[in-house]
UniProtKB/TrEMBL annotation:
UniProt key word Nucleotide-binding: yes
Taxon lineage: Bacteria, Bacillati, Bacillota, Bacilli, Bacillales
Protein name, per record: Cd(2+)-exporting ATPase
Enzymatic reactions: Cd(2+)(in) + ATP + H2O = Cd(2+)(out) + ADP + phosphate + H(+)
GO molecular function, one term: P-type cadmium transporter activity
Domain P-type ATPase A as annotated: residue spans: 183-282
Amino acid sequence: MKEYRVKGLTCANCARALEEQIQSLPYGEGATLNYNSGKLRVHERIDLEKVRTILATDGAYIADDEQASKKRNPLLYFVGASIFLFLTALVLERLGIDGASIVIYMTAIALSGYKTFVKGLKNIIRFRFNMDTLMTIALIGAFGIGEWKEATVVAILFGINEYLEGLGMERARRSLDMLLKQAPKEALLISNGQMHVVPIQLLQVGDVVLVRPGEKIPSDGVVIEGKSSVNEAAITGEAMPIEKEKGMSVYGGSVNNEGMLHVQITKQYKDSSLSKILHLVQEAQETKTPLELFIHRFAKYYTPFIMIVSLFVMLVPPLWFEASWHDALYQGLAVLIVGCPCALILSSPIALLAGMTRNARKGVLVKGGVHLETLGRVRTIAFDKTGTITKGKPHVTDVIAYIDENKLLYIAASLESVSSHPLAQAIVQKAKQHHITYKQPEQMATRTGSGMEGKVDGKWYRIGNERMFDHQLFTEQIQKDAEKLKCEGRTIVFVADEQRILGLFGIADEIREESRKVIQQLHRIGIRRTVMLTGDHEKTAEQVAKQVGVTHTFAQLLPEQKVEKIKELMKNDTVAMVGDGMNDAPALAHAHLGIAMGKGTDSAIETADIVLMQDHLGKLPEAIVIARRVNRTIRLNIAIALSLKATALLLTIPGWLTLWIAILSDMGATIFVSILSLFILWEKRTI
């Protein structure tokens, strides 16, 4: 299948009709034309000229086509000319020149309503009923009863409505396209001491590129030389620059601010974070929510229903109540116009597209409208502990020294400096924070599962857990201190010389700075339950839960037990699961909504429905607020569209419904729902 970008689509119904015509061509089976994204997918062997001809019937064209791309939608100019002719005809009518005024009215109708009229006639012949069919019948009826003036107003207002409808959707698409322009096009490749400009698609893993100040980093990689600050807003939504130096990873698409960076590519562009984001955002435009699918099905049966109601209004009053045929026909035509489903069909796609764009700007990647809709209904959020609420990195929380504290840190850091174990690195980091200079031990020996011993400054020391030491060394005070740390959920590391315990360290997984604030915000915006799921023991889980403020905690869970707990929670609420690791993927998949941290494992990110590209929870509450706003906007749009039409239809009972009121109610509803949906893009404080 080949993909083309189509411009000039005026409405979702029109796009669907064009799609059906393209599908009827040879090799047209499976062709899709998506109104939301403006994407056309067709078989490579289809006759593209015939496709262009079909698109042209709606004023649409393939944007990639060199000649077509120079085209502009002429509808606005035709409508402008129609308005001028309409005003001219009004003047001639006042002067009593009726024949000339009728000719001018017909010319004005032809200019602004020609597309609708032609498409409507084709639909009538094929027994296909949509808004073009309704408008065409209404115009023919208006001619038949001599309502030239009102027929012209109907054609002009419908033309304006059609133009504005297309404009609203194009505005939402353009906002999303701004994200897609973040992709760099070329890279400065360093090869054999020479520099070459190459397309980013040609970069291979292991290639080294030079990124100058102001340039975009071409793909994900690691800095091997240089130091600079980098703006990662395109990926994470975070505006503050981040300092990068040798050994630090960088995202493709982020901007190098001031220094020169040599970056070694770790992922081909097609596998980079930015490429995945752009691909998923484009895919997300083309998914339809259950509500959208319902609206489209509803519109399919709604249009014939309106035609039946219109026929009823035209025939019943004259036949049974001796009403005027002229008035009944007039009222029936007005009903046809009121019944146009434009506003109803537009009530959802613009709002969803705007919501996904707004979240993408914030670094929250929503993989489809259905997931955005679900996010707005979430009332329970389950969090994995390690790497989500916490950093997944041990740090020293307590130092209890029975000798000088600096001396204890010096001995411990010297012993642990040769180890890559996370607990060892936490102790070394603690010494660095206290600006303590340490050195590697002169001799060392490891005891698997318990610790190690080594010689520092000519003296033997030991470091490890309880199993490393003779219990006679544990005085009452040491036992009391150790028990206190255990109750607080700490992992304990003891340090001793050959005669006694010198001190102990309490180590715990470091809680993310934003976790407590995020949990508070979630409760404030109406999340009923925040649940922490962890494989850690209960004491540790309780301490973390107490510090961050979650409402429920479940500890010592295996991956399959996390899934069972998620299923249990789903019985009463719409549940989102937030995680980052391989063992979170099953729970992410089973929850109503899976949310992954941006720097989590690939399996978690692939499984998740939403990805937090910042690798922290800070944007989650705002994303939920935006999703709820989208849902509220869609409901309000539907209510406005239906209530305006219902009100207009009720005016038929006393005979007050005019063609003017009918078209204004339809046009007003369409414009109102479009503007209301676009307001979602407006940045303001949401929580």
